[in-house]
Specification:
- The complex is a heterodimer of chains A (about 425) and B (about 525).
- Chain A has a five-stranded mixed β-sheet, sandwiched between helices. A four-stranded parallel β-sheet of chain A has the order 7-6-8-9, sandwiched between helices.
- Chain A folds into four domains: about 10-105, Fumarate Reductase Iron-sulfur Protein, Chain B, domain 2; about 110-160, no CATH class; about 170-300, Glutathione S-transferase Yfyf (Class Pi), Chain A, domain 2, CATH 1.20.1050; about 310-425, Rossmann fold, CATH 3.40.50.1860.
- Chain A contains 24 helices and nine strands.
- With about 425 residues, chain A is of the alpha/beta class.
- With about 525 residues, chain B is of the alpha+beta class.
- Chain B contains 16 helices and 19 strands.
- In chain B, strands 12, 13, 14, 15, 16, 17, 18 and 19 form an eight-stranded antiparallel β-sheet that branches. A five-stranded antiparallel β-sheet of chain B has the order 5-6-10-8-9. A four-stranded mixed β-sheet of chain B has the order 1-2-4-3.
- In chain B, a hairpin with a 3-residue loop joins β18 and β19 (about 430-440).
- In chain B, α12 (about 400-415) runs antiparallel to α13 (about 445-465).
- Chain B is globular.
- Classes of the chains: A alpha/beta (about 425), B alpha+beta (about 525).
- The interface between A and B is medium-sized, with 28 and 27 residues.
Amino acid sequence: MKTMFTETDLLNPVIRGASAEIEKCRHYGFCTATCPTYVLLGDELDAPRGRVDLIGRMLENGGAPDPETVRHLDRCLSCLSCTTTCPTSIDYAKLIDIGREYIEENYRRPLLDRLLRTLIAKLLTNPGLFRLAMSTAVLGRPFAGLLGKRLGGMVAMTRSMKPARSAFEGHRVIPAEPTAHRVALLEGCVQKVIGTDITDATVRLLVRHGCEVHKPAAVRCCGSLPLHMGRGHEARHFARQAVAAWYDSIVREGVEAIIVNASGCGTTVKDYGHILIDDPEFAERARIVSEHAMDISEWMVKVGLVPKISPSLKVAYHDPCSLQHGQRVISQPRELLKKAGFEVANIPERHLCCGSAGTYNMLQPEIASQLGERKAANVERTRADIVATGNIGCMTQIGQYAGTPMVHLVELLDWATGGPKPPALASLL
Amino acid sequence: MATVMSARPKSAVDAFVSAVRDVVGERWIDMAAQKVERYGENLMPSGDVPVSGVIYPADTEQVRQIVLLANEHHVQLHPVSTGQNIGLGSRAPVQPGQFVLELGRRMNRIIEINEELAYAVVEPGVSYQALYDELEVRGHPLMLDTTSGPPQGGPLGNTLDKGAGYTPYFDHFYMSCGMEVVLGNGNVLRTGDGALEGSKSWHISKYGLGPYLDGLFLQSNYGIVTRMGVWLMPKPPITRAFFFSFPDDDDIGEIMEVSRHLKLNSLVPTLLKVTNDIYALGTEARFPVDRADLRKSIPDDVRAEMQVEHKIGSWVVSGAVYGADDDAVENHIRLIRSFFERSGKATYIPQEIADRNPMLRIHSDSFVGKPTRDEFPLYEWRPGGGATWILPVTPIHGEIAKEHQQLSRRILGRFGFDYICEHVVGSRMSRALHVLVWNREDPEENARAKACFEAFIDEYAAAGYPVSRPPTEFQPYAMNRLGHSFLDTCNDIKDALDPRGVLSPGLYGIGLHRDAN
């Protein structure tokens, strides 16, 4: 697709980058069939090639974008299913992030919208505040119906969330005896509060396989959530903090890999090299940190899983979009589950997002619930005993709609290699 | 691109739209330009074919009512199923101003899967991926035959366009059984045994009583098929693909001679894919602009360099065998090797090695009926986004295959494009899938591509062979090459089944006689 940027426009590296991606689009349309919002809404402007056009026109026109453009771009899940399908390899992730940041800087949203988005961005990236909010939500639950679709939905969503403390909280280094590897572990912001079983299972699994685990204190949020809300400055600020800390771990402590067990975060960490490419102070370190980032499933395949028990259970594996489309990590979780003795079932329409998509189920609850219900129905079709996945966002989202017990992949791997049975499976056997 | 209204007066079209809204509901007809114009997009040299609107019916009864309304208001309809038909240019109609009947959005139900009798019954919107997923949750008792096109294409649409796959069930029409069709006159036809009220054998018994009508709805515009039976193959315990690389262009002669023997004697159950160098490496590589002139065919010396870089020869042959266990398939492959390796030119590539190469893994996926999207990067071999398949027929005969290669290379060389070809080899004929890739943003190159396609139709016809599945833009041109009363008969049938010509006029050149008259 031809763009109409002026030579002056193209002096801006962001516009130049966007233009190069937009011009790759041939309008083949393969992306439409795999785009969740197009599948649900059937509107070309809610499909990737429509959004590519909208972003192009918005940047060409300059100034404040029109509300229709904002509406269609807000509806994008950033699931990146389109990037798996696109034969011309458009970097849609880059393009939608540019579009979102442009909207954030040039469009004045209604007051309630602004407040809600700020609340989400601040709460979810700060475990202390998030923990406090979880406690407050208990008080708000009886009034959830009065709080409007989005805020009420968020409060209702907390029903299944139980804030807890990790057994390894405050531990900066967890040793392994003997130590064969040294790795850093990213604890996701939300996971630190409501997913401590995941963190604990990951640490036990790593240590059991000879990996000394480092958790640098300076690493806070990875920047993923603000990045996908168009808050690029905040995202880059978090990214710089993390890059500085992990680079130090790599160079001084000999950390071989940065392990991520929240795949939404993993996609962002693997993209640090691109996110900070225009920052001369951090670009090189960011590239090195990106190259060290690995999903826990990639790392465990490399290390070699040593199972001790063989649970004869059927597991439906849900591919988080950030893993299957963002990182192209598809075979590793299945390989590990099979090695651990589970029967693995693929979920129909596995390319379609569950509707979690970071903060999407809070900001676009209607579309998210349709996707959640669709995913849950597909899960039930597998008749599996358990659903496993690699991202806490997907667990929360699918858990709202599916009756099948939901666990993180690492909880099953931990169990199969000598750890405790995952709490979610307590009633199963 | 703007949408265009039908050639009918605005009042007639408005009345049609209003009546259709009453049938399908307000939200299931789109007239907004930004949605509608996508259905008229066309990658072919002559460009887009604007349409008037898009209608999304829910079932056969709604389709029937819409067809009756089209007859009443003299409005034209163009049905599409699922997928984009990008391999053949687009899903746009031949002539502008038609209303697209989008069957993929709501008529996408798998009506039945019968595991014992090994068939499925599908609506037009069921994609290969959806059918594959359904078989997967059932533990793959049955296997699909897919095309190498993207997973969102579907069995019904592909069958109606005379599409084919690669497994023993490759002949999609032969493996279809029983259709429900809304004819252009609004009658609803059930073919074969389905014509019997309460039939229990509609989708297992092909030929029924009386004339066999199913074939009328292939590559035609006589009716809208709203359901179809698809026979499925029991999934074999073991599938093992095999690959051979041949070094020279003229090895196609030897390959075809061996292939004919193997296929006619049922020594290979799948079709054989005989893929030339650029077709095989073009899914990953791009035209080497640093070493060759984009306005000309890639030179042989550069092609030779790329063969070395990608560790393939001029041709790669692949196929697969099925068996009960590893020993059975290994013994079978040993037998096949003894034929292909007899002259000493072939290099055998085991599947475990081939599958590390994404371009060869596409072949392995095809032989187990797994939908793949990996072939389409081939369209980016040259910049500019113009692409289509050209599918002339080639006999499985060594000398003729060599002549056809020379003919294709001559045509493509004359117009400055590359020979990108995969023969899909059966017992007697192959479909020679040529891929034409050009820069459609360059008017001069667009004109060359158009002339090149027409030269293929003309020069293959002069040699006695048709181009079997032309894109919509070239369908009237190709059909007009046929004699022996063929097109006249097609038009007579059109007059009988669709007397007001409301269905896709011009599709496969049928129904244009009214304009001429």
